[in-house]
């Protein structure tokens, strides 16, 4: 038995591949284009593990996906691959439409053709799990209840609009063609192997380098933070027990304003790696806000808890301490990303292996 994972060299996909093999022992075919966000160094521990097959390629490449289905006959596909950074989507939305919309369409069509050719139990048990985001629901006011699965879609950024479009395609491929899909809409993840352009790893990296900690606008925007391995366990649970055609919201019940996140990171770094120049708080710098910046996200995760028995294992306090410690212990990984050396490492170590 094997599953096909897309985007498994990225932050969440990489954590998912490591977690999946460790907790289920089942093999993974990992299709990833290795954009700037894909980093095979994350999967170094699987280098000589034949349960992990890496394929460098694009989810928009229909012929490649068809060949992966026919070669590996996966029992499920878990679709992470996406352009994921809101700020990048503001500067260059085209790649977001291409990968997130066209790429998801291509995967759905390839999966439909493959699934139509299956029979019996293989056909009944096949799953297409689509990994999506809470950002599709738009922005909450201070007193609004958290997002449930029935909230209307009100995406505000090119990124969230492209993810919303992909969610709609997945829904339609189930309703029209019967493709056995599930979708999860998750809140902000944090944890190991997070690319240091997103808030938490950027703040840790900048503080350690003595650089400014850029707070967009007033820093009072609220996100709902979930430790990444809890997201992985939620997806494992949905694959095992989720109902076909259903959407599950996944979150950690951890709403925090950005400035509080940054102050928590500063307090941990002041404790674990004090700077001779004094508290890292001196580096906080308020900068011009992100255009169209959503004010608040919050997830109501009661459905997945009630129907599937999933709950996060980490609190924010335990998760953020682990995360800061991981970055302190893995400065080599961070430095290779910041210098771009991870790309050389990939070519050197995986050059011969990459390709279908
Ligand atoms: P990421 O940017 O770290 O990783 C994305 C991965 O997809 C990279 O390895 C990249 O190389 C790969 N990729 C990009 N375009 C591709 C293409 N055309 N073909 C094949 N591979 C391609 O993203 P992430 O933060 O790990 O997010 C993974 C998924 O989870 C995304 O779908 C995102 O929308 C969703 N999500 C993320 C969060 C979060 O907080 N990061 C929260 C909820 C949902
Ligand atoms: O909500 C889920 C989403 O969370 C995912 O779908 C996205 O893929 C993921 O990137 C993340 O989106 P955000 O825009 O919330 O994450 P980001 O880390 O970019 O920013 C978090 C908050 O911090 C946001 O309010 C913007 C703010 N911020 C971010 C950066 C990079 C700053 O104030 N300064 C910064 O330098």
Automatic annotation (TrEMBL):
SUPFAM superfamilies per the UniProt record, alphabetical: NAD(P)-binding Rossmann-fold domains (SSF51735)
Family annotation (InterPro entries): dTDP_Gluc_deHydtase, NAD(P)-bd_dom, NAD(P)-bd_dom_sf
Signal peptide start-end: none
Reaction catalyzed: dTDP-alpha-D-glucose = dTDP-4-dehydro-6-deoxy-alpha-D-glucose + H2O
EC number in record: 4.2.1.46
NAD(P)-binding domain sequence ranges: 4-323
Domain of life where this protein originates: Bacteria
Cofactor: NAD(+)
Keywords (A to Z) from UniProt: Lyase, NAD
Keyword Lipid biosynthesis: no
Pfam families referenced in this protein's UniProt entry, alphabetically: GDP_Man_Dehyd
GO MF annotations in UniProt: dTDP-glucose 4,6-dehydratase activity
Family statement: Belongs to the NAD(P)-dependent epimerase/dehydratase family. dTDP-glucose dehydratase subfamily.
Protein name: dTDP-glucose 4,6-dehydratase
């Amino acid at each position: 038995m094997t599953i096909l994972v897309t985007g498994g060299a990225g932050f969440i996909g990489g954590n998912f591949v490591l977690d999946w093999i460790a907790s289920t022992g089942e093999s993974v075919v990992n299709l990833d284009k290795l954009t700037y966000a894909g980093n095979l160094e994350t999967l170094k521990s699987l280098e000589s593990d034949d349960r992990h097959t890496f394929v460098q390629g694009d989810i928009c490449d229909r012929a490649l996906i068809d060949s992966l289905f026919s070669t590996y006959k996966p029992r499920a596909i878990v679709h992470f691959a996406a352009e994921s950074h809101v700020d990048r989507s503001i500067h260059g939305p085209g790649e977001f439409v291409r990968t997130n919309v066209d790429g998801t369409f291509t995967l759905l069509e390839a999966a439909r053709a493959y699934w139509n050719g299956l029979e019996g139990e293989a056909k009944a048990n096949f799953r297409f799990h689509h990994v999506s985001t809470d950002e599709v629901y738009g922005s909450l006011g201070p007193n609004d209840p958290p997002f449930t699965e029935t909230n209307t879609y009100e995406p505000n950024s090119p990124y969230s609009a492209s993810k919303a479009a992909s969610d709609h395609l997945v829904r339609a491929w189930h309703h029209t063609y019967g493709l056995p899909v599930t979708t999860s809409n998750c809140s902000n993840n944090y944890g190991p192997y997070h690319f240091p352009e997103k808030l938490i790893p950027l703040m840790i990296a900048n503080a350690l380098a003595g650089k400014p900690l850029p707070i967009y606008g007033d820093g009072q925007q609220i996100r709902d933070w979930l430790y990444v391995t809890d997201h992985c366990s939620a997806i494992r649970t949905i694959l095992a027990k989720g109902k076909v055609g259903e959407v599950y919201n996944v979150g950690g019940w951890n709403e925090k304003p950005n400035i509080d996140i940054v102050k928590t990171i500063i307090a941990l770094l002041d404790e674990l790696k004090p700077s001779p120049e004094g508290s890292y708080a001196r580096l906080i710098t308020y900068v011009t806000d992100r255009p169209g910046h959503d004010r608040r996200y919050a997830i109501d995760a009661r459905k997945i808890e009630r129907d599937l028995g999933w709950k996060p294992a980490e609190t924010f306090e335990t998760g953020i301490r682990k995360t800061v410690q991981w970055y302190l212990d893995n400065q080599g990984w961070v430095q290779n990303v910041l210098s771009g050396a991870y790309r050389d490492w990939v070519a050197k170590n995986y050059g011969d292996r990459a390709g279908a």
